[in-house]
Amino acid sequence: MRPEEEQQFIRDRLDEELGDLRFLRSAEVLDRTHPRSLPAKLRALWNYEFELPLLPIGASFAVLLAILFVAQLQENTDNRQRAAVMPRAERQLVEAGGNTYWKDEYEKAVRGVEAQDQS
Amino acid sequence: MKLKIKVKHLFSLVIALCALFICLQLIVLPRLEVAMAKKHFEQGAAGGKNELLHAIDTSSGDDKWALIRQYMIENGSESISTRFNVIVGDGTTYTSEVTSSPDAPSWTGEEKVKYLEAYAASGPIDGYLVRAAKQLALEYQILSRPEDAARALEQTEHRLTSNYNSQKRELMLARAKIYADAGQFETAERLLTELSEEPNWQNTYLKDSIAKLKTRIMEQRDNSAAASSVSGTIKRSDGQPMAGIGVFLRSSKDTYHSLVDSEPYQTLTDSAGSFSFKGVAPGSYVIYIGLTFGQIDGWTRPVKYNEEWIDLRGGENLTRNITLQRLIQLRSPVDQQVITGKTVHFEWEPVEGAAYYALNGTFPIENGTIGFQIKDHIESNAIELPLDTLYSVESGYSYKKFGDKDIPDPSNLLGFADPSSRFSWSVEAYDADGRLLTRSNGYRLNEQTMGRLPFFYLKERTLTEADQLLLAGRMDEALLEYQADYERDEQDSHSLRMIVKLLEVKAADDKRPLDAASVPYLEKLASIDETGNTLFSLVNYYGSIGNWPEVDRYYGMLKEARQGRVESYSQAQYGILLLKQGRVQEGEAELRQAQENDPSNRFIGSYIASVIYSAGNLDRAEELARQYPERSYYGEDNPDWSELVHGLIEESQGSSEDSYFTKLREALRVCFGGDQKRLEDWTADSEYPAMKAFIKALSKVD
């Protein structure tokens, strides 16, 4: 059989076998597959399924988080540095050699000159 | 890898994220912001203050009151006297306790007024409300708005319920004080009467305060002509005016204790650094100033003890300006340098306008240091001192526990001769008139102001056996060993110095004068010691046994060693010894010169007695007594010489002047002579009470 003949044959068989069947909601189906009205178009969009490439998205999120983290870290170290320069709550005064110093700074200075002497 | 997702699911996800974000912004972040603001404020971070103010502004209800309470009222003070870290008097300085958040920035008056006003008007009614009102009133007073201060107190009084009656009275008393300060005596008295009339309450402190205020008002009203004013400006030597500095005009009765709220003359400088006290009662006062650590750091108020007295007799308007000066930076020896040579090179930065410098040192003791002068009148900003000069310095000593006995700290007795001691030094700069310009000692609280550490070690010598005995607390054995060492080698100046020191310490411990056996050591030391520090002990010793030629000889040597500038105490003692010999005119001259260099006026009694004796002029004596009132120590009652002399004047007018003077001179002669028995006999016989009072006070001058 030639292909055209074969096609015709199958078509005839189909018509014959499905002759008793009727598609009642064909309009609906057509509307879904080929939406024409606006609500139908919107619904189609609403249910549109697409694929997201996980790798690029994941990577960009990771970069964003990293930036935020670094910024936070920097702020923290800034604070800590400031706290080191600024007097702290537990600071004590000490009188030494007729001067009044903050105890921690004085002890640091003494350690400093003692280390120098030893080197 | 891919993820399949529908648009509607993606959309829901985005919506959920947005909701979360909004929730964060509206609820979580503000709380976080408040927490951060609190933290930044407490740490003293830049902008912390504005953050906290913003937090207060944006919060409401209980949250707002809690913030104001925690950050303004709790750390705020209801009086000027408790606002400062450091109180600087005439050579005395004390530091207040560091608060729990010492770094939190302080509020300006305007800032506080705004929030305290809100708290006083609508904050919850409890003890904090009372504090808020008092603090608000203080801020208004500082801003020279006494009406607002009184209004704030009155408004709070009305808000307080009957559970807070005693607090109500406190506020009323505070209001009366404000009116009294503003000179509205009638309103003040009306309030006080109202307060006293209230029945059934027992608060002795309040009653006492009411009574004190009533007396003050009465005095001020009666003596309005006698009231004086004291005003001035406080600035730094770089010209910057010091705003918001506490200024306290303290009476001589109060200077021996620390500053308290009830002292009447307290104020703050305005933005130009100016202050003024009006309606000041007659009396002797010293200005103390209150500063924060930031204000004093690296600066000093150049004043010396007893040199800042303000004597008000009535109706005077005085000006006293105060200029803070930068601390002198030290150059050498510093940072614990170890010195092993025969001299020490001291050097510091020069001070503009300085005519001379004084070099001071300290020895360490258990809980601090002992200070002393190394050399005075140094004309340049450097000096090379031989170690012998350092070994010969005179200093006090502390006591140290050896076993269960307290003995003079051996390290202090060794002084610069102890190679294990860490010494420190400092300088003071003076102008040509002898007024202190600035000093190197002070508050050094950050890296810039800290400078070099003023410490050094002297390790030129090693300890002898005698030194080691001394350091082990075996003083008597050490003395014997020093004496043996000295006998072996008469050039051993260290042993000689230690012998003299130990003999003097023993005599002082037994509360007796030096004995004759000690004198040969003293005389030998005097002949080799160029500092002249032993000479005064010899003057004293020969004075006590009445060997006048030796007194004159050693005093002459002392004058030479000091290049004519003998310390006022030694000079006055020599003057008194001259009076004892009947050389009254010479004694008067020495006492006059000593008086000029002694701001404490400790020997004014002897000086005016010599004036009365030689010139017979009581008016001149009274004038001197008024000019140089004897300053009190630790609130001790010192004789009021002007009153005593005034008594003499009145008594002399009642009797024949010639015979009165003859008797007075005779009494003075007995008193100058110092013979206790004769003095008692004279006192028993004398018929003049004022003369007796004067002679009794004079016999106690020392």
Structural account:
The complex is a heterodimer of chains A (119) and B (702). By secondary structure, chain A is mainly alpha-helical. Among the domains of chain A are: 3-46, no CATH class; 90-119, no CATH class. Helix content of chain A is 68%, strand content 11%. Chain A has helices spanning 3-18, 26-33, 38-46, 54-85, 103-118; strands at residues 49-53, 93-96, 99-102. Chain A has a two-stranded antiparallel sheet with strand order 2-3. The longest helix of chain A is centred in the middle third of the chain and has 32 residues, at 54-85. Chain A is rod-shaped. The N and C termini of chain A lie far apart (107 Å). Chain B is α+β, with helices and mostly antiparallel strands and 702 residues long. Chain B folds into five domains: 7-52, no CATH class; 53-84 and 94-222, Serine Threonine Protein Phosphatase 5, Tetratricopeptide repeat (Alpha Horseshoe); 228-326, Sandwich (Immunoglobulin-like); 330-462, Sandwich (Immunoglobulin-like); 567-702, no CATH class. Chain B contains 27 helices and 23 strands. In chain B, the strands form five sheets. In chain B, strands 2, 3, 5, 6, 8 and 10 form a six-stranded antiparallel beta sheet that branches. In chain B, strands 14, 16, 17, 21, 22 and 23 form a six-stranded mixed beta sheet that branches. In chain B, strands 4, 7, 9, 11 and 12 form a five-stranded mixed beta sheet that branches. In chain B, a hairpin with a 2-residue loop joins strand 16 (356-365) and strand 17 (368-378). Chain B is flat. The mean pLDDT of chain B is 88. Classes of the chains: A mainly alpha (119), B alpha+beta (702). The A-B interface holds A 45-55, 79, 82-83, 86-89, 91-93, 95-102, 105, 109-110, 113-114, 116-117 and B 1-8, 42-46, 95, 98, 100-103, 293, 335-336, 338, 360, 362, 368-369, 371, 424-426, 440-447, 450, 453-455.
